[in-house]
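Request: Give me one sample?
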Amino acid sequence: MSTKTLISVAEFDRLVEPDDLRYELDKGELIEMTRPRVGHNRVVMRLTRVLLQYLQKNPVGELFSSDNLFVLGPATKRAPDLSFMLAGRASTIDPAKDIQGAPDLAIEVLSPSDKAAAMRRKVKQYFAAGASTVLARAMPVRRRPTNQERETLVQFARLEISLDDLCCRLREMLTIDFGSKERS
């Protein structure tokens, strides 16, 4: 088993990301995220188009890409593949800083290489920091998945959601009083 190297938030903020990597901070542990590939980006773009169409007709909030870090705790920063914040919260964001708290809606596109335990941990962190809804969407796999990949995708199959259902879920989410909603 490898030893984890922990770093502070200040050290994390000073990191320079190489072109092929992005970083997240998980309770002080530096997590290297490889840049997504074409299949992953296609799924994110489809979701983006659907949500932007909805938001053009219903301007109730703002959509964010994975270039934005959310501060989920004193030593945790995450960048969901796609996220949404209601207009009231989005208007308070300081554009010079990482976004404090979780988005109202966090969307993670699962790649076959994503580990189930790591994704479960990330989902729990979003909810603990105030997310109302977290959606994980599996990326289509063209080759036969390995046993580990199958296990990851099966564990998250219950979170799988169609694009139509996503818009419906967003509409439902916007009618909820976030201060009183129970979180799982």
